[in-house]
Specification:
Order of helices and strands: HHEHHEEHH
Helix content: 40-55%
Shape: elongated
Structural class: mainly alpha
Number of helices: 6
Strand content: 5-15%
Strand order of the largest sheet: 1-3-2
Radius of gyration: 19 Å
């Protein structure tokens, strides 16, 4: 006997789907890490590279360009010798921080369910 198809009681997402729009911003490889690293203030390219050790320079450069195009971060060329470039979050980028923090909290819960207990770092 076939099971009866249940009606989905969740409201349909608005058109165009804003969930998809937002996820496209943070779905790129290392994009959430870049946003996370910029949450405390402006960072230069090499500082971001050090913050996210596994990322290659090529991918980091591509992600920074994409996030700038999407209005998530600003790129500032500083008139130093030699010139330096700093990246910082826009207001829109700052609005992504609570969402990323919530995702991190769910990540901890998922790990606990899988039997993994993250080591707690000692307060300095």
């Amino acid at each position: 006997m076939a099971l009866k198809m249940r009606k989905n009681r969740s409201p349909k997402p608005p058109e165009p789907c804003m969930l998809t729009e937002c996820m496209q911003v943070i779905a790129g490889a290392w994009a959430p890490n870049v946003i996370w690293s910029l949450r405390a203030g402006p960072r230069r390219f090499n500082e971001l590279k050090a913050d996210i050790p596994p990322v290659s320079s090529k991918v980091l450069s591509a992600r920074l360009s994409e996030l700038e195009e999407r209005g998530v971060l600003l790129r500032h060329v500083r008139p130093t010798s030699p010139p330096s470039v700093e990246y910082e979050l826009t207001e829109l980028g700052q609005e992504l921080i609570p969402a990323l923090e919530a995702i991190v909290q769910v990540g901890y819960k998922l790990k606990r369910l899988q039997g993994y207990e993250p080591e707690v770092e000692a307060a300095e």
